[in-house]
Amino acid sequence: MLKEERIQRIKTMIDQEKSASIEDLADRLEVSKDTIRRDLIQLAKKRQIKRTHGGALAIQKEATIF
Known about the structure:
The protein is of the alpha+beta class. Helix content is 55%, strand content 17%. The protein has three helices and three strands. The protein has helices spanning 3-17, 22-29, 33-45; strands at 19-21, 49-52, 55-58. A hairpin with a 2-residue loop joins strand 2 and strand 3 (55-58). The protein starts with a helix and ends in an 8-residue tail after the last strand. The relative contact order is 0.20.
């Protein structure tokens, strides 16, 4: 699996489930925990997720007020 594909799958999983642990993501994607940590750092820098101790959270999108 390519890095870009893996990162997109991580983002999709976190968005759907609202959170994910590093261990769970590593098991599901069959990569090391260190690889997942690096991918989460990259997603967090792009402000696509919020990193937590041991995992990540989906970023809450604010509602538009009219």
